[in-house]
Design a protein that fits this description.
2 domains; 6-stranded mixed β-sheet; 34% helix; globular
């Protein structure tokens, strides 16, 4: 057994936070090691320790058998370790070839570099993963999946590639793109390269994994061969308890229709979309990336006012030309990109919590009742089991799962009848996902109608009364409760690929 990485009794603190606790880990060459754990469990700190970004307070680090007393990022890279972060860390204004070759050419301190040099290095790296890309294309023009391929190829330009760490590599990929990535991981494994695959998507992890590692509260709670694990066991280990995963009972058909969408269209994004939403109903919307699903719900919130058709709320025609009008009509929206569209990252949980309902906490003279604000916001974050009781902390300090709970809490503080959730569990851990789904069901019981936009098929199956399948901006198919199964929905998506 050859260890690319061996960590022995690693301990790391950040002030009062004990991020890693006496952690010991082996990463073997030619194996796929899958790392799972809730947000805030220490995964990021572990990655940054291996890559030399963080220096542990105690413990030993061995790379390829050599001990490093104070590992630096350059030493980690020189030892053949590369990290591909979620944002890929690419130069958007440079070409594919320039991005792939950059690390190698900088390391070699080349002063004069020709286009031929760039392309030769890039082509060789892409050949290692069996991929053909336009080497002259600017990275900013690539799809997310192709940007990821550039990042993987760049990691392979090192003279010795021993370990590639992939942080949430599938979070923005379609089913087909995910399968291509998993095939590439299998190819890298055959080249004796170790992979540390970090993801919340347990099903994908199980497909390629050799060794499974589960973290909780800064510790490895269990590790071993993948055959010793299943999704239920991993979830329980991650959060420290068994969680429910059964499908919710069908809601009885509501006689009260809360929302009617009649033949709406917007430019070339979607056309002639019609559906209704009953009081307390949960409606799912799915489809391939770029199908128009996000644009449809954005129009319901007034971000993209429709060109044609009619929207009726509680039977009354409404022209929703901006989010303010949507809010006045009882519609709330949790966007796909919570960081740029859903939150003010520098502001506190409290400030974010009242963004959508400030008028509810103000007197007619505009004076805010901060005692009431603190009481209501604290109550809502407790309902969502946010991992902090201090609502004065900036939202940027929270994990992805907790940030998503703050966006949802913002609308729980408002008076809404319809809550639209676009990708509610994207990039969140199992525990956060469970609490979000639990809150969705509570909202439904209280009579709030919910629209879930998602490509997470189990999420749709577990929560929805009906599901709409969108293809190329049109309503392709509608599934009733009895026909909503993983097999049926996957078959529908495969049909339009």
């Amino acid at each position: 057994m050859n260890n690319v990485v061996y960590l022995e009794n690693i301990d790391k603190r950040f002030g009062g936070v004990h991020a890693l606790k006496n952690l010991t880990l082996h990463i073997e060459e030619g194996k796929v090691h899958c790392l799972a754990g809730e947000n805030g469990c220490g995964k990021s700190t572990l990655i940054k320790t291996i890559s030399g970004v963080h220096t542990p307070d105690m413990g030993k680090i061995f790379l390829n058998g050599e001990e490093h007393h104070k590992l630096t990022p350059m030493q980690s890279i020189s030892a053949g370790i590369q990290v591909i972060y979620q944002d890929f860390s690419l130069f958007q204004n440079l070409s594919v070839a320039e991005n792939i070759a950059m690390n190698k050419l900088v390391k070699n301190r080349r002063k004069f570099i020709s286009e031929k040099d760039y392309k030769e290095i890039a082509r060789e790296a892409l050949d290692k993963i069996g991929v053909d890309l336009d080497l002259s294309e600017l990275v900013e023009n690539l799809s997310v999946a192709d940007k990821q391929l550039v990042a993987i190829a760049r990691a392979l330009t090192s003279e010795k590639s021993h370990l590639i760490i992939m942080d949430e590599p599938t979070s923005a990929l379609t089913h087909t793109e995910i399968q291509r990535l998993l095939d590439i991981i299998r190819l890298l494994k055959k080249q004796n390269i170790a992979i540390l695959f970090v993801s919340h998507k347990l099903k994908e992890l199980m497909e390629v994994c050799d060794q499974f590692i589960v973290m909780r509260n800064g510790q490895i709670v269990e590790e071993g061969p993948v055959e010793n694990f299943d999704e239920k066991k991993i979830s329980a280990l991650m959060i420290g308890r068994e969680i429910e995963s059964s499908r919710k009972e069908k809601k009885e058909d509501s006689e009260e229709v809360i929302l009617e969408v009649d033949g709406i269209s917007y430019k070339d994004k979607f056309k002639d979309i019609s559906f209704s939403l009953g009081k307390g109903e949960i409606l799912g919307i799915t489809g391939l990336l770029g199908c128009g699903r996000t644009e449809i719900v954005s129009s319901l919130f007034g971000v993209l006012p429709v060109d044609h058709g009619e929207i009726r709320v509680k039977g009354n025609p409404v022209k929703i030309s901006n989010p303010s009008i949507a809010k006045k009509n009882g519609i709330g929206y949790v966007p796909e990109d919570r960081l740029t569209e859903g939150l003010l990252l520098q502001q506190s949980i409290q400030s974010n919590g009242i963004m959508a309902s400030l008028e509810n906490f103000s007197s007619r003279f505009g004076i805010i009742n901060f005692d009431r604000v603190r009481s209501i916001v604290s109550e809502k974050i407790r309902e969502l089991k946010l991992n902090t009781s201090d609502i004065s902390v900036p939202v940027r300090t929270l994990s992805g799962g907790n940030q998503q709970r703050v966006v949802i809490a913002k609308w729980l503080c408002a008076d809404i009848d319809i809550l639209i959730l676009n990708g509610p569990s994207v990039g969140v851990d199992v525990g956060s996902k469970f609490e979000i789904h639990k809150k969705i069901q509570e909202l439904r019981k209280a009579g709030t109608s919910v629209i879930i936009v998602s490509d997470d098929i189990p999420e749709l199956v577990d929560n929805c009364d009906r599901v709409l399948l969108i293809h190329k901006g049109e309503l392709h198919k509608e599934y009733g409760y009895d026909s909503i199964t993983e097999e049926v929905l996957m078959a529908g998506l495969d049909e339009i690929r």
